[in-house]
Amino acid sequence: MCVEGINLTWTPMLLFLTSALCSQWKVNYHPQCICAVKDSSVVIPCSFYYPDNLIVQSVQWGHEKYNIFVGPFIFDSKLNKTSLRFQYIGDTNHNCSLKIHQVEHNDTGKYTFRFTTNSKEGKWTGKEGSTLKVVDLSISVTKPNGNRTTKEGDSVNLTCRNSCDGGNLLSAFTWFKNGEPITEGPTLYLSNMSYTNSGNYTCSLKTHTGTTSGVIHIDVEYGPKNTSVSVRPSMEADAGSNITLTCSSHANPPVENYTWFKIDDGDIMDVGNGPVFVPGDGGQYLCSATNKHGSQNSSVITFKIKQYWTFTRDVLIYAEIVAVSVLLIVTTVIAIIRLNRKRTRAPETDCEEDIQNTVYVNYPVFHNNQSQERIGCEEQTLELIYTAVIFHTERKSNMEQQMASHNDDEGVVYSTVCRKLLKPSYVETL
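RESULT FIELD:
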């Protein structure tokens, strides 16, 4: 039945009239099967026909999930409120095309057109309809080296596929990296890859940039790069300040181990681990960053620590101790020097007293026993050189002086020096 409400049990005349009307009432869908990529815009082409003496009063588009005769309709010209995604781009003459914006997966299904004229029985629905298929763009990944971790130097091929093409690469595609367009074509070739190729890749239809495929993440692994050392607060710091060395490096996967080395007289010594190191003194340092793909050393940095005195409480106490120690040493040395001087002067005083108590005479001295010695010298014809009389005096009490007066010769030493003459002639007294 082509016209709604016509009963097939009517008279043959009515059937004849209906058959004539059917030749004039018609809706064409071309093509009847339409494929669209999600988020794209799609047009369902349509044309309709009716008797020329009639006027079209309203048009509707329906979806198979609702009743195609009574609705609800996705588009109804009699209603002011319709979804903005569904746009009627036809007219009331013969064009009944429908445009769907930002196609979604739940838009899949059969769509039918229905129109109403000013005749009492003038309603018509094109029941054949047009079927819409909604698909996603997909990306296939090909790794010439096999399905393993992607690292520097490897190659990867990405192919954008639109299943609406039926396996043929008919669509024009645009490739994006991290949301920025980079090239066009169905296949993206990435060869001799480096860490700069890491990122998120998508493709879209060239004619519909909103038709984005799923994201393919390329993660290129590499060993440590750009390894460097930073010094805080500066390359030359005051003594006592906190010096911090920080090792930084770019690597994928991240650096697993940081090792610190110090160069001392040509020797390289392992002095610490970790990204941050606090050295005990100045000098030349470098760090090494390592992950599973290799390691890299930083350049050598040299920093100096200024030496100066800091007058702190500990330093003042130390200075006081040193001052007291020096004072004790000086006092001790002075005391020893003075003691040695006293010991040295005592004999000199006795000698001076002896010299003061010595009388040199130049004439013969004869006294008691010494007169005989003198006579002995004369008999042997000796020459008298000199005679010395030495008095040893001491300070004595009055009693001792009285006792000593009885013996006047005590404390007196007589000395006579003679020389033998070849010819006894005379005696010279010196």
